[in-house]
Amino acid sequence: MEVWNRAAIAKHVWYLFSGGECSMWCQWVKSYLLKGKSFWGIKMPSDPSWVWRKLLSLRDLIFPIIKFKLGNGENVFLWHDNWHPFGSLLLRYGPRILYDTNLPDNSKVSSIISNDSWNWHFPNSWEIQEWITATPPSLKPSIDSPDIPVWSLTTDGSFSIYSAWDCWRDKGPKVTWSNLVWGPPVIPRCNSHWSPLPWLELVEFVTNSINGKSLKSMIMKLSFLCTVYHIWMERNSRIFSKVFKPEEVVTNSIIQMVRGRLLSMENVKAYAGDNWYLEQWNIPSTILLQSQTAAAERNSSGVSFPTLRVE
């Protein structure tokens, strides 16, 4: 959730670069907070608002992502913005580069452009020579084109909260039990028999038991998920509220949740042995594919489905 909040806040930073002229908030920020300075270079105020502090605190994360397709250079800060392969030129060379070039901190890239070419009117130094040499031939200004900010995490260069979240979130190796938690049929986080195994081995056992889309596999998956969910809820209730439910009440809640989810299904592919599960869980055969349920309905005619009960 913390990473998602950061990604949502990053959208406001993107607006400062991607045409905030249409936003009164962006115009207010540029006029009263930035005052002609770079967002990347401005200092954190001693008493910023909560929103402004959050935006400034994300600069190190967002800077490598917002790049520029250079045009006339009038809206790109020479020393701060991410327009050159070196990234921030001020961060690479330090304040001395300002004195060597005689260009102030708030200079724009347009100050070193003449027509559609670079104008390197600086004294010779190893820093400037490195900078010039590292500027690729493909990086050419165009005085007839605007500068375009690019969100480098998406193919079209436009911002998305998902792309920021996916970039910043912790990524671990894919686990073998992902299909147990995600995908249909799932309900929030039982005539099914569980082996008395340690937790990790139990998870592996269930994962290997839910292959396919048979009614048995669905019941196994739902029973496991509902059991984990209700045990966790009961654990929290006992710890934080000092409220204890009897074991049979928790078990019946699990059964009813699984059965409720099963009743909402339809067109489940029929397999041999389904009748036993339909009877045990008191589920009508109409949840099975209609083309395959005729035999099952004939076999189950005259049979009264017992109500599940906890023993």
Which descriptors apply to this entry?
single chain; 311 residues; mainly alpha; 2 domains; two-stranded antiparallel sheet; two-stranded antiparallel ribbon; 14 helices; 4 strands
Structure description:
Helices cover 45% and strands 4% of the residues. The protein contains 14 helices and 4 strands. Strand 2 (113-114) and strand 3 form a beta hairpin. Helix 1 crosses helix 8 and helix 11 (215-241) packs across helix 12 (247-263). The longest helix is centred in the last third of the chain and has 27 residues, at 215-241.
Fold blueprint:
Elements: H1 2-17, H2 24-34, H3 50-57, H4 59-62, E1 66-69, H5 89-93, H6 96-101, E2 113-114, E3 117-118, H7 126-133, E4 148-151, H8 161-168, H9 178-181, H10 199-209, H11 215-241, H12 247-263, H13 274-280, H14 294-300
Antiparallel strand pairs: 1-4, 2-3
